[in-house]
Amino acid sequence: MKNYLITVIVILFMTNIASTAIASNNLIFQGGFEGSGFELPFVVAAGNTTNDVSKDITVNLSSTTARHIHLWVHNLQMLPNDAAMASFQVINNLGQSSTPVKLNNTDGVDTGIIKIQDNAKAYGGIGEGFHTLLLRIDVNKLKRLGTNIPLTLTNKNTFRFYLHNEAYAEGASAYRIIGLNVYNSSYDSILSGAARWNGPGNASDAANYIASNSSTNINEGLDLWENKTLLAKPGESSIRA
Fold first, then answer.
1. DSSP-based three-state secondary structure for 148
2. 19-73 residue pLDDT tens
3. SS3 of the chain: helix, strand, coil, percent, to 5
4. Residue 141: CB partners within 8 Å, gap ≥ 6?
5. Is this model's pTM higher than 0.85 or not?
6. How far apart are CA 58 and CA 12, in angstroms?
């Protein structure tokens, strides 16, 4: 019975991912784009520093008509007074930088530069009810740093993801990007390069995040599922999976 339930859950999960990818014009959840200089998912993490950190990826586009950037982000948290845990910036191939977009509600969603699903808004927006959110960034509202002039994405761009040190005191030290796409005004993807999916353990840095799909790990997981005693609420007896 447990094996049957696991199979059903996995199928439903994968179906949900596939459906969301189709609905989002093939938003890529795991893999990379050949020639674009990055793989997904990737993590932006503090490590041992107490300073702000950032991670750059190179994003190549087939045209300069970008109008929408979609980021599927996991583990953004809401800080006191809705301070931004993270920010996003674009640097085009002309050396022009955008003003960083704060990935929060006050400076991002409420200003219209970021759009999120209505149900996510109903449950508190960024950093609240949903651990993973699709952030739709309006490219027309990206301005060159220090000016009110719109930034144009070129055929080659750097996407820079910041993690701000204000988050560390709140126990937030990392987030990850699990999907990314760029669209023109007709919602045609203009990412240059073919989508490439990686299976578990096949990414170049997989050893840091994903256990290998070995018989030892499979058996260990099965043992945990079948035999692990779980903690119940205080005052209640132990429960099993």
1. coil
2. 333 233 333 333 333 334 567 778 898 877 888 999 998 899 999 999 999 999 9
3. 25, 30, 45
4. 111, 112, 113, 150
5. no
6. 33
Q: For residues 137 and 114, what is the distance between their CA atoms, to the nearest angstrom?
A: 5
Nearest Cα to Cα of residue 90 among 21, 180, 165 = 180
**Block residue for tokens 């260990």:** 220
Residue with tokens 């005191």: 169
C-alpha separations of 139 from 46, 113, 136 in Å: 28, 8, 9
Q: What is the rounded radius of gyration, in angstroms, for the C-alpha atoms of the chain?
A: 20
Q: With CA atoms as reference, report the closest residue to 64 among 40, 42, 33, 96.
A: 96
pLDDT tens digits for 139-176?
999 999 999 999 999 999 999 999 999 989 888 888 98
- E-only strand ranges, the chain: 31-33, 39-40, 42-45, 53-60, 68-74, 86-92, 101-102, 114-115, 132-138, 156-163, 174-183, 195-196, 229-230, 239-240
Query: Could you give the residue ranges of the DSSP H alpha helices within the chain?
Result: 2-23, 118-122, 215-227
Rounded CA gap, 209 and 96, in Å? 34
